[in-house]
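Q: What does the predicted 3D structure of Dehydrogenase/reductase SDR family member 4 look like?
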Amino acid sequence: MSKIVCERLLGKVAIVTASTEGIGFAIAQRLAQEGAKVLISSRKQANVDKAVKSLANKGLNVKGLVCHVSKSDHRNQLFQEAQKLGGLDILVSNAAVNPEVGGVLDATEESWEKIFDVNVKASFLLAKESLPLLRQSKAGRIIFVSSISGFQPFNLLGAYSVSKTALLGLSKAAALQLASENITVNCIAPGVIKTKFSSTLTTGPAEEIALSQIPLNRFGVPDNISGIAAMLASDDGAYITGESIIAAGGMPSRL
């Protein structure tokens, strides 16, 4: 059984996209450990089933469904399911893709469109479409998962880096718009976190180069990010909005 770390999120309902592995899974687990009812999702039913079973076996209150964030009917199903759980207090937009590696001007038009469709447009639409439910919450929270590459672009992840910079701007603009409604909007910018998604940087010939850019001289792990999300989602983060919290082992982060 997984112990509740604390009860900061007791009674809250959260959606975490792309949450069946890696950073998204860690965030979903931490929010549930702090008392939230959590809806997890990803594009594959098998992954959803596996993640739900894993978390439910720890005594956590989770449900899951398939959601491709670029599909409007899938997003709508997420919000309908949240409403069944009692509404929505926390939206964590974590889904991202990076179909190719290389410099930004080497990206194909097809890859550029896919990256911005999932990483930016879907994040915007999730935030926009969550508002009817978040407005019913006493303290709504929107959290975008950006990246250190949004501040300091990675040449291997050129187009992806630009998409993550766009999320920083989206967060600030949305925070300004929603502040009067007591809905906070923030970004988390992870550094190089050891996940399947980041394996091109954390394994093979790129590993030594990547480590040399990290003053702490180690890669992060998903749990280094999940606690930040829980803080932003809780009353402890009530006076933080329009900000980006960087967890990157000391990597340069000046935009």
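A (community wiki): The structure tokens above were generated from the sequence. The longest helix spans residues 109-134. The longest strand covers residues 184-190.
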